[in-house]
Amino acid sequence: MVKVIGIVILIILNKPTELKYNNYDVILVDGRARSMCAYVAKDLLKKTGYLLVHDFNNRPYYHGILNWFEKVDEEESLAVLTLKKGKSNE
Predict the structure, then answer these.
(1) Count of alpha carbons within 13 Å of 76, Cβ hemisphere only?
(2) What's the total number of domains in the chain?
(3) Which CATH number is 56's domain given?
């Protein structure tokens, strides 16, 4: 069961990279695999775009996302992040 769920998550994660449009102003990450979603999102955001991550502030295990993003604002458990310079594929 875990193997099947892992494969489904990988399929879902890669789906946005197959779309024609890949220059988003804002991406909201919530639900499963937030760190992996954030990693994929770094290549889909505009350089000036925002990544919103739900339950970021109260779950330190998501803070690895800060390797690619920096926090610019927060509200309760929601974090507003922007790309660090040189961390996108543009």
Answers:
(1) 2
(2) 1
(3) 3.40.50.150
Residue 23 contacts residue 68 (beta carbons within 8 Å): no
Q: What tens digit of pLDDT does each residue of 15-48 get?
A: 788 888 889 999 999 887 888 889 999 999 999 9
Q: How far apart are CA 59 and CA 8, in angstroms?
A: 24
Residue 13 lies in a domain: yes
Nearest to 49 by CA among 86, 13, 17, 80: 80
Structural domain range at position 62? 2-83
Query: What element of type H or E holds 82?
Result: strand 78-83
8 A C-beta contact, residue 69 and residue 79: no
Give the pTM. 0.81
Distance CA 90, CA 79 (A): 23
For residue 88, tell me if it sits in a domain: no
Q: Please return the burial class of 46, using the count of CB atoms within 10 Å of its CB with bins 0-12, 13-18 and 19+.
A: middle
